[in-house]
Amino acid sequence: QLQLVESGGGLVQPGGSLRLSCAASGFNLDYYAIGWFRQAPGKEREGVSCISVSDGTSVLTDSVKGRFTISRDDAKNTVYLQMNSLKPEDTAIYYCASRKPMWAQDLNRPHQRMCSMDRDDFDDWGQGTQVTVSS
């Protein structure tokens, strides 16, 4: 059974740091794209970051560039979101989501799925982890 489990959220003061984890079970992350999204109360769910697992290419939304970093640990089948210099406006529930690879007939293997910041492009979601930035 395919499952994504987020962890690492919590309460932190402005300027502090947190590292979120997205652990995958029931499937291997190779060739997947994994995205981090967040949803604040009364707002739409927005894309924060995404990584193409096999080649490591990644994207960040403008509001977190220079503060957040996305990475993966292939051995642990886990994607991380390192969040530094946190601001109150970063307060939200953070979700990770997976985008399944397509099969490449000519290569006889999956084709690396490209990143997206559109939530509708993702297939499976974790349950979310709360991040609260407040003094």
User: What Rg, in angstroms, do the CA atoms define?
Assistant: 15 Å
One letter per element, helices H and strands E, the order comes to: EEEEEEEEEEEEE
Q: What is the overall silhouette?
A: elongated
Taking the alpha carbons of the first and last residues, their distance comes to: 40 Å
Q: pLDDT under 50 segments (min length 5)?
A: none
**Beta-strand residue percentage:** over 45%
User: How many strands in all?
Assistant: 13
Mean pLDDT: 95
Specify the biggest β-sheet: 7 strands, mixed
Number of helices: 0
Helical proportion, percent range:
under 10%
Q: Structural class, from helix and strand content?
A: mainly beta
Summary?
With about 140 residues, the chain is mostly beta strands.
Overview of this protein structure:
The chain is mainly β. The chain has strands at residues 3-7, 10-12, 18-25, 33-39, 46-52, 58-60, 68-73, 78-83, 92-99, 102-104, 109-111, 124-125, 129-133. The strands form three sheets. Strands 2, 4, 5, 6, 9, 12 and 13 form a seven-stranded mixed sheet that branches. A four-stranded antiparallel sheet has the order 1-3-8-7, with no helix packed on it. It has a two-stranded antiparallel ribbon with strand order 10-11. The model has no long low-confidence stretch (mean pLDDT 95).
Question: What keywords describe this structure?
Answer:
135 residues, 7-stranded mixed β-sheet
